[in-house]
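ok new one. same drill as before - structure tokens go in, u give me an amino acid for every spot. 373 of them this time. try not to just spam alanines like last time pls lmao
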């Protein structure tokens, strides 16, 4: 039996619930700093730079997605990072401004107890604060929470992923507090929020999708199901200013254009109908089951577009990020903005992972067709 679709929704954790978004509680969350799962083999600063502008990517979201039938993936989380530069989103397709990493641990590991974490908040405020170091001692960047191999040259305590975030933190207040605290005293130099770089933080709540649609309703450009284009719709397209341009086209070209528009209408309508019951969904998860729902017939990856894992296994669809997430990210602007129609994540079918390091997987960006923006 194919697995059902699970939906993710953004929920404000609030000041009293921030502790649930820390690593020890295996969260699914949007924004803020990553709550790293394993402490070995974290992606370094070079791996997290945008392929297009070479600036550091920001943490977008993580999904806790253990595999019950795999003892080596008793804990398993997928981490997605996204560039903050709007211009980097002009082109569709793979990677570019986006990347995704997978990490997993067995139940018995060196980082977490075997028992589930308690459901009550821990005592004291420290548990809600983002960590500056991993338990093993590796420093994390004060701005983004990723590996911070670069240290402040003055105090040698503040860590950064690179010069961009060191300069940002210096302007945000580290130059005033640098060197003021005694060894081991962090009170004089609290980590600033850095909301100008970090995305807003939300908890992701997961619920099963109500089975109102058949499992094979995923639509692609070659799908022959659905309503045919009404004749009057085609006639309407040939009126007005567009009609003058069409007069110079032969009948075969007109038929091809009409068919293409019909497919676009059909695919986008299917997308709208599928999300209508839960319009606030930001995640659709269904590893190894139903495929993604596309927002357009254009730029749908073929099998050859999805590279095999480094272990040689094929990659399979695991989840997609919906355009509704953009409403929570505060990225709207009068000019260009961070944007997508849907982001689709494919992961190793064999779920390889000897050594518990972070392994890069594959993400594909599809945009809306121009007529639906």
């Amino acid at each position: 039996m194919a697995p059902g679709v699970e939906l993710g929704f953004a929920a404000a954790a609030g000041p009293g619930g921030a502790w649930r978004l820390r690593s020890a509680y295996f969260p699914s969350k949007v924004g803020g700093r990553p709550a790293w799962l394993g402490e070995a083999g974290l992606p370094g600063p070079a791996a997290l730079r945008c392929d297009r502008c070479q600036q550091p990517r920001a943490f977008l979201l993580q999904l806790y997605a253990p595999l019950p039938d795999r003892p080596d993936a008793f804990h398993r989380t997928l981490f997605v990072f996204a560039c903050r530069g709007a211009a980097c989103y002009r082109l569709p397709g793979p990677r570019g401004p986006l990347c995704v990493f997978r990490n997993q641990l067995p139940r018995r590991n060196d980082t977490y107890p075997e028992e589930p974490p308690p459901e009550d908040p821990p005592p004291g405020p420290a548990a809600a604060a983002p960590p500056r170091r991993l338990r093993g001692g590796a420093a994390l960047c004060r701005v983004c929470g990723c590996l911070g191999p670069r240290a402040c040259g003055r105090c040698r305590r503040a860590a950064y992923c690179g010069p961009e975030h060191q300069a940002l933190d210096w302007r945000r207040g580290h130059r005033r507090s640098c060197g003021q605290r005694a060894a081991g005293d962090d009170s004089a130099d609290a980590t600033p929020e850095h909301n100008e770089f970090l995305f807003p933080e939300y908890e992701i709540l997961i619920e099963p999708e109500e089975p109102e649609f058949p499992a094979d309703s995923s639509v692609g450009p070659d799908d022959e199901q659905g309503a045919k284009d009404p004749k009057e719709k085609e006639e309407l397209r040939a009126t007005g200013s567009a009609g003058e341009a069409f007069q110079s086209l032969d009948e075969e070209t007109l038929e091809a254009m009409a068919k293409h528009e019909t497919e676009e209408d059909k695919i986008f309508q299917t997308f709208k109908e599928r999300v209508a019951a839960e319009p606030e969904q930001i995640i659709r998860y269904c590893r190894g089951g139903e495929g993604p729902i596309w927002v357009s017939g254009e730029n749908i990856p073929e099998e050859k577009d999805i590279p095999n894992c480094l272990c040689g296994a094929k990659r399979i669809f695991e989840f997609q990020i919906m355009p509704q997430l953009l409403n929570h990210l505060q990225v709207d602007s009068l000019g260009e903005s961070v944007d997508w129609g849907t982001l689709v994540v494919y992961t190793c079918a064999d779920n390889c992972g000897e050594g518990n390091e972070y392994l890069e997987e594959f993400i594909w960006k599809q945009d809306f067709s121009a007529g639906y923006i």
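The first helix runs from residue 163 to 177. and btw The radius of gyration is 23 Å.
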